[in-house]
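Usage

Read records sequentially. Each one opens with the input sequence:
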Amino acid sequence: MRLYIDPGTGSMLFAILIGIIGALNYLLKGWIIKLRFVTSGGKKTVTDTEKIPFVIFSDDKRYWSVFEPVCRELDKRGVDVVYMSASDDDPALTNPYQHIKGEFIGKGNKAFSKLNFLNAVILLSTTPGLDVYQWKRSKDVDFYVHMLHASNTVTGYRMFGIDYYDTILLSGDYQINDVRALEQKRNLPAKELVKIGVPYMDEMVRRLQADSTVFPHDTTVLLAPSWGESAILKKFGGKIIRVLLESGYHVIVRPHPQSFTSEKDLIDSLMNEFPVSEQLEWNRDNDNFNVLKRSDILISDFSGVIFDFSLVYDKPVIYADTEFDKSPYDSWWLDTPLWNFTALPRIGEKLTLDNFDSLKEIINNCLTDQKYADGRKEARSETWAYPGEAATRAADYLINKYQMLTANKEEGKE
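and closes with the structure output:
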């Protein structure tokens, strides 16, 4: 008979194990320090010689595009960074930068086990859930910094996703307001909230300016949903793909990468029902730059790719009415609507079951109506501060924070 352990229980057992190992680890460290003190004749000994100044943690290779602009800026300034990835094929592991050292630290719990005992001054990550499930704050990491990997609401993470970071790097005032509201609701200490902009969107603009060529092609519709119970493919299944194919447009389906893990049966079924053809593509590129560039209009739900597509590429979107369930997310705690859903009507048209049959007309309208171009400009000003400056501002903050932390530590020793 096989023993089944549900994910919640498994996470709890893992946390208990890590706690026991951690207690033994720190007890052992204490004995070693005392032994060094005795053997050195009562003189102070250095105990943090292995402390890494800067660590970046990425739980998936797809976030290299988010971190690379910041890594490039830090490398240019001669700042050494250890880039720890949970993907063994992460482009960061073979990055071209002299001062950025890529390191594969294992997948899943193996990666978190290493992070839970990390010895570093600053850790930067886009991964939510610090100190909630398997990933615990290490007592030897001085400061945790979270950087958003999309230019949309900060409350779209699963519940308590950012509560235990020290700093959040943001791109809009509405995000600051939402974080402060969550802190008040949960009686949390105020985090540092630093508005830097969006590094990877700045990078997209730079790439577009360097490669602005558009080749003649059939009107192309990109279907790129998020994942989960409220996402397009879970709600509508193959119906939306079928309607798109009937419209006669070229169709690209790009599921969220997490769907291939968490919704594997669904994706396999859809790919079997709608195989690749001259009219239909299934896209799994790690870098979405080219697929966004060659698409004329995007259909999505609450995925952050909506804002990449509309604000960077300046193209219209159609967003599906999926009756978004806020209950698993931080946004459930707030009375204010998600910024995403206030912006969507300004940058595109809503697709519902009632207007599915008119999808072709909706697409044509979105491609030609000036009001959506005006809406994109408005939304861009709300969620994308300091265009072109994000990597510089991120590097400035990280370096200044490091200098402050190390200076304080030296003063404490004195």
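Summary fields computed downstream for this record:
- The two ends are 61 Å apart (CA to CA).
- Residues 1-7, 22-27, 36-48 have pLDDT under 50 and may be disordered.
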